[in-house]
Design a protein that fits this description.
It contains 7 helices and 15 strands. It is α/β, with parallel strands linked by helices. β1, α1 and β2 form a beta-alpha-beta unit. α1 packs parallel to α3, α1 packs parallel to α7 and α2 packs across α7. It is globular and about 65 Å long.
Length: 327
């Protein structure tokens, strides 16, 4: 008996994850303007920080999707180094909290412990250490594509103007809309908007994850196999792709603060600036079935954190027939 056909719009990490999860039960086609290996600025996945930093939420479904995704990447890190997924120690700082009451994932990650207050950098009110995951998107995305092609998933490079156009081109009744920012048009969703980020890639042998949240958003994310790390970060409503050179010094100052000066010798004239546009959505992620379409977008900068959990939810919604279910 032949499998039912599903077309996924979008080949970012969410679309690829959906293809991976669905390919055992469906005949899957991915249709997208940008495909793994492309490095244009019109899609977010190649430029993401891609660290598994669990998002704080009280929503049980959002937590489940994060757990499912973490389990997938953790298994991958332990089974195939060529995937670009690696286990790292994480130091997580806060400057607006003094306890871990909102750190719901403390029992999920390994080696979790609270940092003594005497060991915190100046201005930091609370900190924890644990073990988590970092992904190199420019390795992982092509790796996933190769795996999917071996599983008979078809890739079509095509930008579509509507879901009905994708359906007409592929003959698929079932559509997964994983189009990111494109969902503003394809799903007529005015809550969708791009969120601009600016980071830097620097050559370094620093092999730890570090993050500060609260009054600022600062991080260090090593890139497996690259000889360097992504340091940031900046969020902005700007829609241009011009590098703001004035931000480099500010990023470097903040990063040195949380790494005890590990990047003090970085030459700002030798860094690689990175501009990317995260697929944001006011009101949070949308994972919802609408007739024969399952929408899966709106995770902003947490695409890698939710990806395989979103995919598992998409599979459940597709297999649920005509019932309407939403997140």
């Amino acid at each position: 008996m032949s499998k039912e056909r599903v077309t996924i719009i979008g080949a970012g990490i969410t679309g690829l994850a959906c293809a991976h999860v669905l390919s055992s039960s469906f005949d899957v086609t991915i249709m997208a303007r940008d495909l793994p290996g492309d490095l244009g600025l019109n899609w977010a996945s190649p430029w993401a920080g891609a660290v598994f930093h669990h998002q704080r939420t009280t929503d049980p479904m959002l937590r489940k999707m994060q757990r499912d995704s973490f389990d997938f990447y953790h298994s991958l890190a332990n089974s195939d180094a060529s995937s670009g997924v690696k286990i790292y120690p994480m130091t997580e700082y806060f400057d607006t909290k003094d306890n871990d009451s909102e750190v719901w994932y403390k029992d999920l990650v390994a080696d979790y412990h609270i940092i003594p207050k005497s060991d915190l950098p100046s201005g930091i009110t609370f900190g924890v250490k644990y073990t988590t995951l970092g992904m190199n998107p420019q390795v992982l995305l092509p790796w996933l594509r190769r795996k999917l092609e071996k599983a008979s998933v078809e890739f079509i490079r095509r930008e579509v103007a509507s879901i009905s156009q994708a359906r007409a081109l592929t003959g698929s009744k079932l559509i997964v809309n994983a189009s990111g920012v494109g969902a503003q048009i394809l799903a007529h969703d005015e809550a969708v908007r791009p969120v601009r980020g600016q980071t830097m890639f620097v050559k370094t042998d620093f092999e730890e994850l570090a993050m500060l949240e609260g009054t600022e958003y600062t991080y260090v994310i090593p890139r497996a196999g690259s000889g360097g790390a992504i340091i940031g970060g900046i969020k902005s409503d700007r829609l241009d792709a011009d590098v703001d050179a004035g931000l480099r010094g500010d990023i470097l100052r903040r990063v040195n603060r949380i790494t005890n000066g590990a990047f003090k010798d970085v030459d700002l004239n030798s860094v690689e600036d990175i501009i990317g546009f995260r697929p944001g959505r006011k009101g949070g992620p949308r994972v919802e079935r609408e007739g024969d379409v399952v929408h899966a977008y709106g995770v902003e900068g947490a695409g890698y954190i939710y990806s395989f959990g979103v995919a598992a939810r998409v599979k459940t919604l597709l297999e649920g027939g005509g019932r309407t279910s939403k997140l």
